[in-house]
What we know:
- Helix content is 74%, strand content 5%.
- The protein is built from 16 helices and 3 strands.
- The chain is extended and about 95 Å long.
- Residues 47-52 have low confidence and may be disordered.
Amino acid sequence: MKYSYLAVDGKNKKYRSEVTAESRDEVKKILAERGMTALEISEYKDPSTTGDQSDLPFWQRDFGTVDPHEKDIAKKKVLATLNQMAIMMKSGISLSMSMEVLLDTEADKDMRKILTIISSELYNGVPLSQSMGSFKCFPPVVISLVAAGEANGRLDMAFENAADIMHRELTLSGKIKSAMMYPAFLMGLTLAMIIVMSMFVLPSFANVFLSFGSDLPAISKMVMAFSDFMLDWWWLVAIIIVGIVFGFKALLKYNDSFAMWLAEFLLKIPIIGEVMRTTYIARFCNIMGSLTDAGVSILRALELSRDVISNIFMKDCLSQVIEDVKIGTPINVSMSHYPIFDTILVSMVRVGEESGMFSDAMHKMAELYQEQSDEATKRLTDAMTPAMTIIVAGIVGVVAVSIVMPMFGMYGVVAESAH
Length: 419
């Protein structure tokens, strides 16, 4: 049975949480073992199932019935939790007390629910990695590191490594998003400008030109025709765009050959492909190094490192490497069969395997590819910024010329009529 309790510790600090026990007396015993004295003990009632949330503040009430095990938590919030656990455990604080501190300080209601369940399961003898593994918000890499930490008695290092991996993942994702943000902004601005000019500005100028009987130049007629088309058939354009988007997504989901071809093609695009490839390999090497350093088996580390890569072509290559390793083929020999893994990576993997310093080799390669990824990202940004500027200037120039040229003709018509 689950009980809710309010208790105080030796410093008269209050704690409110839940615990699973056979009776109220057992709850008091559990709390006493934690150095706390029970003030209130009652049968636990989950507000999400009973519907009674009158005692909760508005911002803490649940307006849905999402299972905490399936709840998505922001990666930054998960990273903060892992960092806190690493700091407390390195300071010598026990796992149970660390969980109590997290529960006492956690403001996010979803994360608090998750931590409450984990804490309760810990006191019932469920291993930490098993409990965390039942929640969607914790990546498999983190679970494997925690499991390895439980096995070797170094949970502090496990949480530190897990936090480091998540931090690197967030940093890599942030760099890619930052690199694409400015070009995407320019593209959006360009599309917005085309829509506004086509639907509002150009039709007004067209009416003025026609009222003066001015003969429009070819470029002006072309732009005006585009404007008329957008005004009359905008709904068809919207349907086509939506159809293309959904069709593309359907091809990716249901046509494996197309999805594989696209994944390989993206890696071959100049600069963009280099950014993607170096970023994925940096991610692979970093996770491989951390997992093997923590004592995770090579095969399991390869599987987890493969699963964090989103490009299915690279993932398929790594799946083939895993199958080769299962039958005794060295990792570097298998990798050498796939051009996606360059010579320096294969050579360093070989050095790591033969010297017994595989994790160190992987960490060094992660740093190298991270630097290459940063350089490629900078080149991508430097190349796309002027390219987008030229595109925007070209569109603005065409529209401006299509408006200015008829104005000279209109002035001629006005001058002739004055004479």
